[in-house]
Specification:
single chain; mainly beta; Neuraminidase; 4-stranded antiparallel sheet; 1 helix; 26 strands; 10% helix; globular
Length: 313
């Protein structure tokens, strides 16, 4: 039987205990990541008062909000780049509704679109290469794609109906969107990113809007007034298993998934003015995140998965 010198045995024993301790610490952080909003709880949103709307960053962990536009006019519909370093948004700061780009801190602002028509509701592809948006530049509201620098603009719906609110699937292969092409009602559709293979997901005598894909690609959250109030619903990506998550006599809108898919942020006027709220993905444990004298809407989480902004998994 092999016998190790005592000093060697002590070193191996210490190494084993160190490995075990590191495993326990990592396990604790993994479990915490399942219970807490990740990426340090950083989200962007629009704060509107009268005819002015500015973009803010909200640090959920520290309950701090910071204005990152401070421009005047309308600045809203924020969307993060996949790396979390930039924000695309809509602004009328130059006299027309266009899509702009800036850093997370609100610096290095550049204009991505330049058209006499209005450009709205941008959505960044998961690979960061393209941005989908809605525009009436062809005398009709359609879904367009452009490169992330604003080049190579292509109309991918080309339909006489109104097509709005595009959102990417996590694999970047498909776009979910809203259209009134069926009986004039606004329903949710999905198509390939090139505009082919259009399928209708909802068919209800109601207004359905603001669809967003869950990070795991299995569910779509959306807003609908099918229960006479604007509520947040969720369904499978084939349109099955539709469920009401909010069930409030109020206006609940703009759902946004947390990066880990465990939570949904949304805007609601259930306490008078519009504020940002957070709930579990099943609709439970609703809590209010903001408290402004103006209307807070359009929340969207920064991509990433850092716990307390320190430990990244």
């Amino acid at each position: 039987m092999l016998s190790l010198p005592r000093p060697v045995w002590l070193v191996l024993q210490a190494a084993a205990w160190l490995f075990f301790a590191l495993f326990v610490v990592l396990f604790m952080f993994v479990m915490a990541s399942r219970l807490l909003p990740r990426n340090g709880g950083l989200m962007a949103f629009a704060l509107t008062q009268g005819t002015r709307s500015e973009l803010y960053l909200l640090d959920i962990d520290r309950n701090l909000a910071q204005n990152i536009t401070d421009q005047g006019g309308l600045n809203w519909m924020p969307v993060w780049s996949p790396d979390g370093g930039k924000i695309a948004f809509m602004s009328n700061r130059d006299g027309n509704d266009e899509i702009y780009l800036m850093t997370t801190e609100g610096r290095d602002v550049s204009r991505l679109t330049s058209n006499v028509a209005g450009d709205y509701s941008s959505a960044w592809s998961p690979d960061g290469q393209r941005i989908a948006f809605e525009s009436n530049r062809d005398d009709n509201m359609d879904i367009y794609l452009m490169d992330a620098n604003g080049g190579n603009v292509v109309n991918v719906t080309q339909h006489p109906a109104t097509d709005i609110f595009p959102a990417w699937s996590p694999d970047g292969q498909s776009l979910v969107f809203v259209s009134n092409r069926g009986e004039g009602m606004f329903d949710i559709y999905v198509m390939r990113a090139d505009g082919s293979e259009v399928r209708r997901l909802t068919q209800d005598h109601a207004f359905e809007s603001e669809p967003v894909w869950s990070p795991d690609g299995r569910r779509i959250a959306f807003m609908t007034n099918r229960d006479m109030d604007n509520e947040i619903y969720v369904m499978d990506t084939d349109g099955a298993n539709v469920r009401n998550l909010t069930r409030q006599r109020s206006d609940d809108a703009y759902p946004a998934w947390s990066p880990d898919g465990q939570f949904l942020a949304f805007a609601s006027n259930r306490d008078d003015g519009y504020e940002i709220y957070l709930m579990n993905a099943d609709g439970g444990d609703v809590r209010r995140l903001t408290n402004f004298s103006a209307d807070a809407r359009m929340p969207i989480w920064q991509p990433g998965s850092c716990i307390f902004g320190v430990i990244c998994l």
